Amino acid sequence: MAIPPRWFTETAEGHSQWYIDRFRAMAAQGDDLDGEARLIDAMVKRGARILDAGCGPGRVGAALHARGHDVVGVDADPALIQAAIEDHPGPVWLVSDLAELDLASLGQAEPFDAAVLAGNVMAFVAEGTEQQVLTRVYQHLVPDGFAVVGFHADRYDLARFDQDLAGAGFELEHRFATWDLRPWRADADFVVTILRRPAGS
């Protein structure tokens, strides 16, 4: 990777294992970890091909796979991908920097119906690569495919995000304040945006 993602440069040593352990503990307690997956599942056809971009240890992709979808999860952190492989067999889990995403070179040439970027993924990519990441995701979608991006509003300036998504070729289709589709408001602390790759592109 040309510029390391902020996941590596702005987190403390041992953060990846802490993150893995945190979600394993939440799953063991029976916490609801499928909220993002329920939204994506409601938006796609049965057996859709879905890209879990910045998949971490695999909770969203695993929930989508359990609902019958063809899922490929990608993350720059090998430790997170190893945890996904161990905990959630079924989807394809791959190590790749989203700013350099080229899944055809990794044996996944078929485009995707949808992509999901949950868990502040866009706040952890390398500074200055946000539009490049969105462009790479756009290039992996079928025409009229969509991406759903969620992040805390204080982690990525919303006006800049809108510029970046337009620069990547996306159209902004909907915006909400939560993954369960609470109405968007200017003072919301979280942002969930649905981006569409135009049908003719």
How would the blueprint of this fold be written?
Layout: H1 6-9, H2 15-28, H3 35-43, E1 49-53, H4 59-66, E2 70-75, H5 78-87, E3 92-95, E4 112-117, H6 121-124, H7 130-139, E5 141-152, H8 158-168, E6 171-176, E7 190-196
Parallel strand pairs: 1-2, 1-4, 2-3, 4-5
Antiparallel strand pairs: 5-7, 6-7
Helix pairs in contact: 3-4, 7-8
Q: How would you summarize this macromolecular structure in one to three sentences?
A:
This protein has 201 residues and is an alpha/beta fold. Helices cover 35% and strands 23% of the residues. The model has no long low-confidence stretch (mean pLDDT 94).
Question: Main attributes?
Answer:
201 residues; alpha/beta; Rossmann fold; seven-stranded mixed sheet; 8 helices; 7 strands; globular
Please tell me the CATH architecture by its name.
3-Layer(aba) Sandwich
CATH topology: Rossmann fold
Q: Number of DSSP strands?
A: 7
Q: Kindly report the oligomeric state of this protein.
A: single chain
| Residue-averaged pLDDT | 94
Strand content bin: 15-25%
Sheet with most strands: 7 strands, mixed
Instruction: Enumerate the spans where pLDDT stays under 50 for 5 or more consecutive residues.
Output: none
Strand order of the largest sheet: 3-2-1-4-5-7-6
Q: Quick one: overall form?
A: globular
Radius of gyration: 16 Å
Counting helices, strands and paired strands, the structural category is: alpha/beta
The CATH superfamily title: Vaccinia Virus protein VP39
Along the chain, the helix and strand elements come as HHHEHEHEEHHEHEE
Number of helices: 8
